[in-house]
Amino acid sequence: MSLKFNVGDLTIHRIVEQETTFLPALDLFPTLSPDALAQNKEWLRQASAIDADDTLILCFQSYVVRTPHHTILIDSCIGNDKPRPLRPKWNMKTDDTYMRALNAAGFSAGDIDFVMCTHLHVDHVGWNTKLEGGRWVPTFPKARYIFGKTEYDYWTEQHAKTPVPPFGDSVLPVVEAKRAEIVRDDFAVGDHLRILPAPGHTPGHIAFAFGRAKDDAVFTGDMMHSPLQLQYPDLSPRFDVDPKQAAATRKSFLERYCDTETLCCTAHFPSPSTGKIRRKGNGFSCEAVG
Fold first, then answer.
1. What is the pLDDT of residues 150-169, one digit of tens each?
2. What are phi and psi of 221, to 5 degrees?
3. pLDDT band at residue 1, thresholds of 50, 70 and 90?
4. What does the alpha-carbon distance between residue 60 and residue 173 come to, in Å, rounded to a whole number?
5. DSSP state string for 38-64
6. What is the Cα–Cα distance from 30 to 251, expressed in whole angstroms?
7. Across residues 66-88, what is the average pLDDT?
């Protein structure tokens, strides 16, 4: 299981918090037929993307990217001490897996210059904050936290109607601590990081492209959850706010990066979670880099 990659002048580390069963494939993907699942079971099992009961196996992780100038963390995963009653594996966690993995990669929380969130779902913002003296404080003390404006505005509106716990405990405390920057799609960090608008999963979902002058690596966030969606790009999970837009975003992305040398870094594919997009039959594949 590779946790470190070098591409261009970037070093990319995977910080894995959990790699575990999530939901049955037919539950996560409402339009997936049992026949289509049966046709793909063998390679999905070989890829450790599904178990014997047809439950999808997902990785929950962050990426830390070192550019020549900055250390950037992408999506801060699940977090500790957070009340998540609907997800027993995430609820009130107290383990040291995430921080231990960060340290093993050679980083401390104080080394992170930027925390970039592809979107503001529960498993992408959890380590934004930690519990200290009974209150939520930013985990990465010197980092600027970057939230897309469309995404932030959407969740601000949702939270005003009905409290959204991850927004309340993992986003707003960062804003209140004046560590957040709400940015538009033209935001960039130096000459190495650019935003790729990728709406559908959420209204303001974004991906990130890294590399000087060309896209050496792209980080997809929840544009896709399972390698099965490479074979069937129209397949959208039930968590997508706009499944049709999500499918269009996914197809456009796959066409754009297919048969290029760009390293595609997914949020949830099973290890190694990264690879190069290639055509495969009527769909695509993500070929691991040896």
1. 999 999 999 999 999 999 99
2. 55, -140
3. low
4. 23
5. HHHHHHHHHTTSB-TTSEEEEEEEEEE
6. 18
7. 97
Among the residues of the chain, which ranges form H helices?
Answer: 25-28, 34-46, 97-104, 149-161, 165-170, 172-176, 228-231, 243-257
Record the tokens describing residue 42, joined without a space.
């063998």
| Nearest C-alpha neighbor of 142 from the set 117, 98, 111 | 111
CB 78 within 8 A of CB 267: no
Q: Which residues contact 80 (CB under 8 A, 6 or more apart)?
A: 93, 94, 95, 98, 126, 127, 130, 131
Taking the C-alpha atoms of residue 56 and residue 49, their distance in angstroms, rounded to an integer, is 6
Tokens 């966030």 appear where? 221
Place of tokens 């190069």: 276
pTM greater than the 0.85 cutoff:
yes
Domains along the chain with CATH numbers: 4-287 (3.60.15.10)
Radius of gyration of the chain (CA): 18
Cβ within 8 Å of residue 109, ≥6 positions away: 99, 102, 139, 140, 141
